[in-house]
């Protein structure tokens, strides 16, 4: 089936892109890894750029709906931020390569991928409503008067950066991979405490 073949190609491409980087990856290597011929690879993905975008879109389709679902839950801003921390750290632990692909795409300024993520979130106005909820809770004295955009930037940075910098931290701090994953799960509570002390009165 086409979907099975595409999935096989995407999984193979992930491995090669991680090993070689975007510039160093070759379509023939990806075809070999997927155990198909190069002609079939080009049938599904016309170029290396399209193949990389396919991986990014698959990651966006995992991440963006999770953000929207969290923001639609009932509760305070702090409750939602805590749920966001749990959801995203658990998701990235299960998909450890995700931040690298998304970071590369954002750094390249690929407007198509960015717009796809934005559309999923904007369609139901969940992020806009969440920022408005932050402003309301600030007016009520529940949250400290920090610009809502900074609250989101800080929260997402606390979640994502340790995964992006994982190879550096594992080597410099001499942390085995399995212990690093355990640390990320333990980190959820630490991040929640940082958010509370930084933004909640």
TrEMBL record:
The keyword Lipid biosynthesis does not apply. The keyword DNA-binding applies. PROSITE patterns: HTH_TETR_2. InterPro entries: Homeodomain-like_sf, HTH-type_TetR-like_transc_reg, HTH_TetR, NicS_C, Tet_transcr_reg_TetR-rel_C_sf. Residues 3-63 form the HTH tetR-type domain. GO terms for molecular function: DNA binding. It comes from the Bacteria. Gene3D superfamilies: Tetracycline Repressor, domain 2 (1.10.357.10). Pfam families: TetR_C_29, TetR_N. Keywords: DNA-binding. This is TetR/AcrR family transcriptional regulator. It comes from Ulvibacterium marinum. The lineage of its organism: Bacteria, Pseudomonadati, Bacteroidota, Flavobacteriia, Flavobacteriales.
């Amino acid at each position: 089936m086409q979907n099975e073949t595409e999935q096989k190609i995407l999984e193979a491409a992930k491995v090669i892109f991680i090993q070689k980087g975007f510039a160093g990856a070759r379509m023939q290597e990806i075809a070999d890894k997927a155990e198909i011929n190069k002609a079939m690879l080009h049938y599904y993905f016309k170029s290396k750029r399209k193949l990389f975008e396919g991986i990014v879109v698959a990651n966006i389709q995992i991440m963006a709906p999770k953000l929207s679902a969290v923001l639609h839950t009932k509760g305070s801003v702090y409750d939602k931020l805590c749920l966001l921390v749990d959801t995203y750290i658990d998701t990235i632990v299960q998909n450890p390569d995700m931040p690298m692909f998304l970071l590369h795409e954002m750094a390249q300024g690929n407007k198509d991928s960015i717009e796809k993520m934005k559309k999923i979130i904007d369609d139901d106005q969940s992020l806009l409503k969440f920022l408005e909820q932050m402003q309301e809770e600030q007016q009520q004295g529940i949250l400290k008067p920090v610009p809502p955009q900074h609250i989101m930037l800080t929260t997402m940075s606390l979640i994502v950066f340790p995964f992006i910098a994982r190879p550096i931290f594992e080597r410099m701090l001499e942390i085995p991979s399995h212990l690093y994953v355990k640390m990320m799960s333990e980190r959820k509570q630490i991040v929640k405490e940082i958010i509370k002390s930084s933004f909640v009165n």
